[in-house]
Amino acid sequence: MTTVLKKPQRSARKPKGDGHMRRGEILEAAQRIFLAEGYQGATIRKIADEVGVSSTALYMHFKDKDEILLEISDGAITRLLEINSELSGRPIDPVVRVRMMLDAYMGFALENPNAYQLVFCAHTGLMTEEKTEATSELGDRCFQKFIDVVNEIAASGRLRTGSAESAAQVLWASCHGLVSLIITKPKFTWADSTELRQVLLDGMLHGLVAD
Amino acid sequence: MTTVLKKPQRSARKPKGDGHMRRGEILEAAQRIFLAEGYQGATIRKIADEVGVSSTALYMHFKDKDEILLEISDGAITRLLEINSELSGRPIDPVVRVRMMLDAYMGFALENPNAYQLVFCAHTGLMTEEKTEATSELGDRCFQKFIDVVNEIAASGRLRTGSAESAAQVLWASCHGLVSLIITKPKFTWADSTELRQVLLDGMLHGLVAD
DNA sequence: ACCGAACACTAAACGGGAATCACTTGAGCG
DNA sequence: CGCTCAAGTGATTCCCGTTTAGTGTTCGGT
């Protein structure tokens, strides 16, 4: 009984990733899987396997699965914020700026469908409210950039209907509606997506903003 | 030893629900839980407990969990189809009819958030494409009622931008965007939802339809 | 009256998810 | 050398949907 019968140690444990190296590896692997297979497909085990490490190891670097995926989404949303900030600075007609922001928003969503869904579609059921708070706050800052421009329009008295607040929310919501439907119902026979975006923006801006 | 020591039968098995009675009980319990706790919260075991039956029993009446929830959603969508059919028959200006349909759509979504989400937000990841086919087809029939009216408008040459197809899709999508965002982001500080619906419809219809 | 098939139901188990636990390994350092 | 401690591990827990192998009841045929 002294023969403790240690397992043959299989195949040497993966050496320590010094510093934050391992954390980065995990994020990278998680991103690959998450982008390819979405929230459900990105399981802790799959990510760990991809890194070549036990599933437990992920909890060294992240509180839980959602923290990993939210950090990935943060990266995406940050890029969106940069786009909005850049547009925010351009000295052009605010209506044109609103249009560019919304179009960039839709383009972004269609190019990052999984991150977009996680942040803007999932909230209910998938994650508790608190978890998404940090990422949501990033989204809010994007929206704030947008509100600023709508306020400019409202200030010049060009808003045809409703308050600046409701106009901004409606503009945002309608763009969200188009991209989220395109993402979640790919089997539907959509008209050309460029045309849809254009019709949406033409309609909305013509309807809400006076010439 | 003749005393076979039958287990005290615990607490007598639930007697047979004759005919299709049990099926109805399951649907009812599932609906209660689904409406209260959404897709994730409505687990097979919870539903079975509520009915007072083992989890396995549910598989006597339904192929799998999704079949249960989709049948519930079917009921909801059918009600929406009835509303649309009713509006479809009214002899009023097609623009007014479009507005009423869209407003009814949004009202319906806000009153049946979980069913709405299951059918219009979940498609990706949660369920395979085939499963939702039957329910989707119901949704398509609702949309067809709507397209018909938009076609009427287009036929009378009152469409300002885009084809009837893209106009219909954009109108639908923008309404979907508003309600789905309100449902999935309840923490956001929304303007009054009645005003939002009105601003959206005013804007969209004014923008897309010539007077 | 009896047999057996059909039925409605059940407990137990399976595989796979997230997360936690108690433990080991090894690098750096006095 | 012996110590600490971060980084890693396998085993385990709990919950999920679903499957398997039954158990008790009912009911038509003979």
Structure description:
The structure is a homodimer of 211-residue chains. Chain A has 211 residues and is mainly α. Chain A is 68% helix and 0% strand. Chain A contains 9 helices and no strands. Chain A has helices at residues 21-41, 44-51, 58-61, 65-89, 94-111, 113-120, 133-155, 164-184, 193-208. The termini of chain A are far apart. The interface between A and B is large, with 51 and 51 residues. The first copy, chain A, binds a DNA duplex (30 and 30 nucleotides) through α3.
What is the average per-residue confidence, as pLDDT of chain A, rounded to a whole number?
89
Distance, first to last CA of chain A: 90 Å
Largest interface (CB within 8 Å) is between: A-B, 51 and 51 residues
- Gyration radius of chain A, rounded: 22 Å
- What is the total tally of β strands of chain A? 0
Query: Helical residue percent of chain A?
Result: 55-70%
Q: Residue ranges of chain A: pLDDT <50 for 5 or more in a row? A: 1-12
Our estimate of the beta-strand percent of chain A is under 5%
Secondary-structure element series of chain A:
HHHHHHHHH
